[in-house]
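I am still learning, so would you mind making up any protein sequence you like and the tokens describing how it folds?
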Amino acid sequence: MMKIIRLFLLLLSFLGFVQSIFAADWPQWRGPDRNGVSAETGILDEWPEEGPELLWKSTGVGEGFSSVIVVSGRLYTMGDGKESSHVHCLNAKDGKAIWTSKAIGKTGGNYKGTRCTPTFDDGHIFALGQFGDMVCLRAEDGSEVWRKSLTKDFDGRGGGWNYTESPLVDNGKVMVTPGGKKGAVVALDKKTGDLLWQSKDFTDRAQYSSLIVREFGGKRQYIQLTGDSVVGLDAGSGDLLWQAPRKGRTATISTPIFHEGHVFVSSAYGVGCNGFKVTHEGSTFSAKETYTNKSIA
């Protein structure tokens, strides 16, 4: 965890002034549009030989694999403490702790530590513990608004390395992937945590990827990758719009990439990468594999 935070702050040091990070928030996994693209300018092409200036170090945020987000001068992340996992809020200028949430869930897992990168939306933080504990917290002070369990409330079935997803917030909904026979993906009311829909026609076991949302063919779609398939779900109802078989091995982790009807997915353990073309005729969608490869060069 500390290595992640140090690296993040080293990168920020090249934005010129600390104040400049406030102008371009990074509120969720892979940035504002969940595509890994930053709008920042003036970043160096390479580091100087003496290395970047270290701005600060922070301790006490626990153990894990969670990344960080930055919103309005505050940094949010997760980590395992001695007895439970927590969400932490730090001052992005000096690394000092602002608040630590109450327990999110138990520590540990198959490789100890939290996996989720928290999501900021409308003054709230949404975070997922490695054992399926989903919480909504007030970003101001870390107080809890609501809580759900992916396993107990939605009969979720995750992978052997526990839950790693970073929640997606979209149009008043919190989107997350419990996996399992009752429906792999759920839409929750972001204000209450109440279940809005569960994808009854898409029932794959959850792996480790995070959902994305895209507009295509007149439909707002949630796109997800599992160990068995890549799919697009109707954002309003959870109905399955399209599904293509795509077998992973051991662990399927990467977030899908979608652009103008083309989907790119990749996973390790010798599987490689695949491309799919999504087409539609009226309201009927389909997806067909366009290539498979072991290299993306």
Summary: The two ends are 31 Å apart (CA to CA).
